[in-house]
Amino acid sequence: MSKTVFLYPGQGAQKAGMGKDFYENSSLAKELYDEASETLGLDMKALCFEENDKLDLTEYTQAALVTTCLAMTRVIKEAGLKADVTAGLSLGEYAAIAAAGGMKESDAIRLVRKRGILMQNTVPAGQGAMCAVMAMEAEKIEQVIAEIDGVTVANYNCPGQIVITGEKAAVETAAAALKEAGAKRTVMLNVSGPFHSPMLIPAGEELRKELGHVKMSSLDIPYVTNVNAKEVTDISETRGLLARQVSSPVRWMQSMEYLIAHGADTFVEIGPGKTLAGFMKKINREVKVLNIGAWEDVEKTVSALS
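^ that's the sequence the OP posted. Answer follows.
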């Protein structure tokens, strides 16, 4: 049976001006941006729509991106587009859960604001690092870094693009070892911490406390979690999975393979940029991938799927 999946990007997709056209054209989108500003005590319009220095800081990025993705989702749902399942990369998983009915939009936005602060502040600046490894199989990367203490896989994005994470010196050592072992390229990432590494376990424990105060609701549709690349249908699993998610690898490639194996053939990326569409081209070129990042994309996507 054919299935449609709503996909939500992670940190790095943000850009100044994102969602502005939705705010200006939809009362539903405007309402969510205004609610987010009130909930967080931040000027979400200034943060998302204007050039500024805060948008790329983790503590602000996460709330801005989830607000934008969920504002777009409101418009898409109003236009009649429905998903059978959702998935989000790292931060995007919160948008995916809210879109699937598992938590209120305002709670998702508040949680990722807290998550961003915890991720930014748990490891002192300069102690951690991340590095993208190009054109090397995941198994080979795992073998090489298994010999180096303090470094693990952060993201399985797609074939040919794996990200490693951990202590700065260990990541630099691993990058050199991977080049020597045949990686085409290694690129140190401009990030503020060793995301998705065991160094962030304390952040996950703090986040678990925060999650305890959030009301979870029965899911309207399943979502796929980054932690084990499986569908979640029971919302009672979500708190534990989200607490683990900040320090465990993002199994994006495996999540997409799981969805395709279970009948998903249409993927709609919701949010700025086309990062996830780019990954999908390397994971499976047979499926249909559409993007909604601008106001005019809504009508185009509705037409393409009707």
